[in-house]
Design goal:
Aldehyde Dehydrogenase, Chain A, domain 1; Ald_DH_C; Aldehyde Dehydrogenase, Chain A, domain 2; six-stranded mixed beta sheet; alpha/beta; oxidoreductase; 2 domains; aldehyde dehydrogenase (NAD+) activity; 43% helix
């Protein structure tokens, strides 16, 4: 939609007209062609190249996000997604030949990936550029028509997305709807062929309930309390830097896969805290509230939410580093808490900010029980050189994704599916998984008119029954026995 159109009232009637229009475009077959898909992926890649500075400025306006974070974690990752899709698309679209069984002999079979149709993508505010357009790449590559609903909590990026997609993309097939709750509600009332939502569990439940009315499949990219288990037999300086990069270097903790809390032994915790303090001082200086390398808290509501977590009586006196706040600038310094009680507010909900509790255990293996006693996180991290501990971690911890000896970097590996499990979401994307998220795997079986065996037709006899059972079982010896009537 153009900026003028987006200022008009977008209600349920407007949403219905929009979906009907896109359904007509999809029915025409325009988006199914390889040429259209490639043209749109190239246009998206050009958009990113041409307008990099505008994107940086929009994210600076919405989140005070450091340009390096924008370039590395939003722009570069999006360009890489486009590159992978353009390189692999022909292969992804090609029907996959599969074997057939004796039951249908002679025959051949294949799996055909077909686009689902008209899809809705509802994006998040914390990585508003990447999390809007990365799913769009998958939807385009799969051959769908698309409606993108960016987050109103990042208004500068939302406005820029509406403007740029209108300028660079096929406006008949790819639409942007700006707005807040009313506009999102109007969109959710419609029948879609898939809904892709990135955000929190509370809204995720609303999206899923709306989708259920139309039996619409959903991908929910949510979050959770992503733990970091830290062993003592490690390179402590490197581990501290990688934890900091994943926590405060990712939008100041406002990321779905940011480390949410640390688990380590009572004996090792003081050493870990000292290492984190040293590296945080190097990265953000003596007054981190003034650092240009830390994003601000997105808005007053989230600032108040984080302040409430810190002001909980149960964590009073637990702060061992940081804690400084500047409400006028919506800034909170990197903050470490030691031994926050498991029943405190900060340990009950996803933090989504610059606060990092450290929970201590007697033996590191107890950490896995702590993790598994809560809801399944989107990510879980382990720092260790112990092979047995690593294997136990991979075997026993259920999370959307696991990383050993680093944090968050699995997000950049397009050969891995990215998504949650349980309360942290359902479905996955990135690379080929994005293409598959917006495709239907259609089973196709080919037969000729020869070898039309009478065994499947009435009148049914004991011989036919034996033969059918043998055919379905796939036993050549059984078939021979059935034919000759051998027991």
């Amino acid at each position: 939609m153009s900026s003028n159109e987006s200022k008009k009232v977008f209600d349920e009637g407007a949403a219905l007209l929009l979906v009907d229009e896109l359904r007509g475009i999809f029915a025409s077959g325009t988006t199914r062609s390889y040429e259209w898909r490639v043209s749109q992926l190239k246009a998206l890649s050009k958009l990113v190249d041409d307008r990099e500075q505008q994107i940086i400025e929009a994210l600076r306006s919405d989140l005070c996000k450091p340009p390096l974070e924008t370039v590395a974690y939003e722009i570069a990752m999006l360009k890489n997604s486009c590159r992978v899709a353009l390189k692999e698309l022909k292969h992804w679209m090609k029907p996959e030949k599969v074997k057939t069984s004796m039951t249908t002999f002679p025959s051949s079979a294949e799996i055909v990936s077909e686009p689902l149709g008209v899809v809705l993508i509802i994006s998040a505010w914390n990585y508003p550029f990447l999390l809007s357009l990365d799913p769009v790449i998958g939807a385009i590559a799969a051959g769908n028509t698309v409606v993108l609903k960016p987050s109103e909590i990042a208004p500068a990026t939302s406005s820029l997305l509406a403007k740029l997609l209108e300028e660079y993309m096929d406006n008949s097939s790819i639409k942007v709807v700006e707005g807040a709750v009313d506009e999102t509600s109007a969109l959710l009332q419609q029948k879609w062929d898939k809904i892709f939502y990135t955000g929190n569990g509370r809204v995720g439940r609303i999206v899923m309930a709306a989708a259920a009315k139309h039996l619409t499949p959903v991908v929910l990219e949510l979050g959770g309390k992503s733990p970091v288990v830290v062993d003592s037999d490690i390179n402590l300086r490197v581990a501290a830097r990688r934890i900091i990069a994943g926590k405060w270097g990712c939008n100041n903790g406002q990321a779905c896969i940011s480390p949410d809390y640390i688990l380590t032994t009572k004996d090792f915790a003081p050493k870990l805290i000292d290492a984190l303090k040293t590296e945080l001082g190097k990265f953000y200086g003596e007054n981190p509230l003034e650092s240009k390398d830390l994003s601000r808290i997105v808005n007053m509501n989230h600032f108040a939410r984080l302040r409430k977590l810190l002001e909980d009586d149960k964590v009073a006196g637990k702060i061992v580093y940081g804690g400084e706040k500047d409400e006028s600038k919506l800034r909170i310094a990197p903050t470490i808490l030691l031994d926050a009680p498991r029943n405190s507010l900060i340990m009950k909900e996803e933090i989504f900010g610059p606060l990092l509790p450290i929970i201590t255990v007697n033996k590191l293996e107890e950490s896995f029980d702590v993790i598994n006693s809560g809801t399944k996180p989107l990510a879980a991290y382990l720092f260790t050189n112990n092979k047995k501990l690593r294997e136990q971690f991979v075997t026993t911890v259920s999370a959307g994704g696991l990383v050993v000896n680093d944090t968050t970097v699995h997000l950049a590996t397009h050969t891995l599916p990215f998504g949650g499990v349980g309360d942290s979401g359902m479905g996955s994307y990135h690379g080929k998984f994005s293409f598959e998220a917006f495709s239907h795997k259609k089973a196709v079986l080919y037969r000729g008119f020869k070898a039309d065996a009478s065994v499947r037709y009435p009148p049914y006899t004991k011989t036919k029954l034996r033969l059918l059972k043998a055919l379905i079982g796939g036993s050549i010896l059984g078939i021979i026995r059935a034919i000759f009537g051998w027991s």
